[in-house]
Amino acid sequence: MSYALELKDLRKSFGHTEIIRGVNLAVTAGERVAIIGPNGAGKSTLFNLISGRFEPTSGDVLLNGQRINGKRPFEINRLGLSRSFQITNIFPKLSVFENLRCGVLWSLGYKYTFLKFLADLDDANDRAEELMAMIKLDKKRDVLGMNLTYAEQRALEIGVTIAGGAGVILLDEPTAGMSRSETTRFISLIKEVTVGKTLLTVEHDMGVVFGLADKIAVVVYGEVIAFDAPEAVRSNTLVQEAYLGSAVADAQAGGH
Amino acid sequence: MSKTHYEFKPFNLGRTVIWSLFAIVLLVMPLIFTGGLAQTMLSQMGIAIIVCLSYNILLGQGGMLSFGHAVYSGLGSFLAIHTLNMVSKGNLPIPVSLIPIVGGFSAVLVAVALGWVTTKKSGTPFAMITLGIGELVWAMSLMFPGFFGGEGGVSGNRVAGAKTLGITFGPQIQLYYLIAIYTFVCTALMFAFTRTPLGRMLNAVRDNPERVEFVGYDTQKVRYFAFIVAAFFAGISGGLAALNFEIVTSEVVSGYRSGAYLLFTFLGGATFFFGPIIGAVLMVLAFVLLSEFTKAWLLYLGLVFTIMVAFAPGGVASLIMMNLRVASFGYLRKLWVSYLALAITGLVALLGASVMIEMVYHLQLNVALGSEMKFLGMTLDSKGVNSWFGALFVMLTGLGLFEVCRRQFVIEWGNIQIDIEREIKRRETL
User: Fold this and answer.
1) More confident residue, B293 or A95
2) Which residues of A touch B220 (CB under 8 A)?
3) Do A105 and B196 count as a contact with CB atoms less than 8 A apart?
4) Which of A114, A123, A145 sits opposite B198 (nearest CB)?
5) Which end of chain B is more exposed for a tag (fewer CB within 10 A), N or C?
6) Which residues of chain B lie closer than 8 angstroms to A121, CB-CB?
7) pLDDT value of residue A1
């Protein structure tokens, strides 16, 4: 069968340092996958490889069965993969509405035209309004991106990411820096707006991970050491070692 | 949710009024200022408005700092004057009124050829490449005298070809109205451009090129297409300039000219669409009037530019818009005393400074005429201690008082902004 997203022996080196060391992962369409792992394990690098920000050193990335490694980010986006960023990455001097409209233009086929007025593009405007309601920023329609609160900017980030209607969505730490109550609200928002889509998310907050994901992939030192349902991952000894690794090592060191 | 029925779009009164006013101003200016110099200046202003607006497509809307925009207006000028000469010889049956469009399309061809390399990168590399290409074309203008006319340039005669309705474009006023029509249409087209998908994605590329790549757009193509559009309007302005001056010298492609576009677009204000229009008017005033008034005009210009960059980076347009905001909340009348005080003390400081500047220039340039000089009706002795001490005293007094007024003004301004914020919050909760 063909997967929505498949990584085959993916590797990436910076200089002599191999950061991603042979990742294999196959995500079925419609699955929500959380990628967890300690700091510096290569989670963000993995996202950068998939979304075209970096080119893999070797191995393949397949999107709906099609090989996409080596393609530019905008080409990958046009094939139906969209991502958000850990550090808010919106258009600061454009309004909320304009941010979202920029996100939908390509997917509706307007390309680089300068022979049509934006105001006349009813489908793009309706879609942007619809997205604005979905991420609950419809009261902030004309506020510039840079004047939003942090939580609002994060919501807009998600809005711009899903705007183009991509089937595969990558979210890089969507709740980073949010308070607990904000996080809870935000997770239900993410669930709402990604219904029917394949979702990959990097997350640190274990509460979020178990609430959101159908499956969890654990990345440690550039390798996926486990990829399974949350309960199975929780009881996996390899994972426990990776997360409790230092404690185990300490205990062993103390034993000698 | 797509609309299948006819939808009534409200008539945008404000916009209609502004565009009508713009058209009326273009129409009646030469009726108010009827002198020969006025007509010359108004013609130049129209030309400058087009080129500064086109430059702002790059700078303000695309975040592309170009040091070589004169390449496109200048080459537009050269191709226009050669076309004009072909029309004069009877080799080409096109009316003179369409020659600026020839300039526009020739600039497009140049931009298509050079633009892809230029727009490969944004930011500093972009600025460097434009600088390099500017130097390249400038050097070429001296290498190929056949096309660029060498030191003397290429001259032409705009009274040529068919005379539709008896319009020869011989008298300056006839040419002014041709320029005015082009200015109005080009301004409208460039404003329309800001409302199109390409125009909006250009803003997005300015704000955050990386994110643009992740919403499906190739940033280089966005920059490249916008660059070509900007070149088109620059070329039209170049074509009009060729008709206006009837001579094109290699100066029009120089880095000096590119620098002037940058400087005055910035002074006018790159963040608002209408800013470069103000910049263009200031450019002509500075080049034609200020340079007549004083030999030190470039020094004054540099001073104004430095002060603007440091204290009002949004240019004149942003100052206007900030005060309009204050006015719309009814606070402007609280500020006029402060403004008056700032203006008077500022002028006093400027007076002292300019007396010293003029004395230095007098010493350098007019030594043969003796050390005495006239300035603003005063008789000054450029070698006398009294004049120097007096000027210094006036300047320092002005500066000191200005600083006092400025501090007071900053406090008042801050309070008003707080009041406005509060008022906005109050209206939101209603």
Assistant:
1) A95
2) none
3) no
4) A114
5) C
6) 197
7) 56
Find the domain containing A148 and state its range.
5-255
Please report, for chain B, the start and end positions of each structural domain, with discontinuous segments joined by +.
Answer: 14-320, 330-429
Total Cβ atoms within 10 A of residue B350: 18
CATH number assigned to the domain comprising residue A56: 3.40.50.300
Check whether A91 has a pLDDT greater than 80.
Answer: yes
% of chain B at pLDDT higher than 70: 97
Judged by CB atoms closer than 8 Å, whether chains meet at B197 and A110 is answered as yes
Interface size between A and B, measured as CB pairs under 8 A: 104
The Cα–Cα gap between B237 and B234 comes to 5
Whether A51 has its CB under 8 Å from any CB of chain B: the answer is yes
The answer to whether B18 faces chain A, any CB pair under 8 Å, is no
Point out the residue among B195, B211, B225 whose CB comes nearest to the CB of A90.
B211
Residue A73: partners with Cβ closer than 8 Å, 6 or more residues away: A51, A52, A53, B213, B214
Helix (H), strand (E), coil (C) string for chain B = CCCCCCCCCCCCHHHHHHHHHHHHHHHHHHHHCCCHHHHHHHHHHHHHHHHHHHHHHHHHHHCCCCCCCHHHHHHHHHHHHHHHHHHHCCCCCCCHHHHHHHHHHHHHHHHHHHHHHHCCCCHHHHHHHHHHHHHHHHHHHHHCHHHHCCCCCEECCCCCCCCHHHCCCCCHHHHHHHHHHHHHHHHHHHHHHCCCHHHHHHHHHHHCHHHHHCCCCCHHHHHHHHHHHHHHHHHHHHHHHHHHHCEECHHHHCHHHHHHHHHHHHHHCCCCCCHHHHHHHHHHHHHHHHHHHCCCHHHHHHHHHHHHHHHCCCHHHHHHHHHHHHHHCCCHHHHHHHHHHHHHHHHHHHHHHHHHHHHHHHHHHCHHHCCEEEECCEEEECCCHHHHHHHHHHHHHHHHHHHHHHHHHHHHHHHHHHHHHHHHHHHHHC
Distance CA B252, CA A96 (A): 42
Q: How many structural domains does chain A have? A: 1
SS3 call for A84: coil
* pTM passes above 0.80: yes
Q: Which residues of A touch B201 (CB under 8 A)?
A: 102, 105, 112
The alpha carbon of residue A94 is apart from the nearest alpha carbon of chain B, in Å, by: 8
Which residue of chain A is at minimal alpha-carbon distance from B201?
A: A102
Contact across the interface for A89 and B208, Cβ inside 8 Å: yes
Average pLDDT over residues B379-407: 90
**Interval A154-199: pLDDT, tens:** 999 999 999 999 999 999 988 888 888 888 888 888 998 889 999 9
Could A113 and B198 be called an inter-chain contact, meaning their C-beta atoms sit closer than 8 Å? yes
Write out the CATH class of domain B14-320.
mainly alpha
- Output the CA angle B58-B114-B131, nearest 5 degrees: 60
Distance of CA B150 to the CA centre of its chain: 28
Contacts of A125 in chain B (CB under 8 A): none
Interchain contact, A73 vs B204, CB within 8 Å: no
Find chain B residues with C-beta within 8 A of A107's C-beta: 216
Portion of chain A with pLDDT greater than 90, in percent:
62
Residue at token pair 């004309």? A142
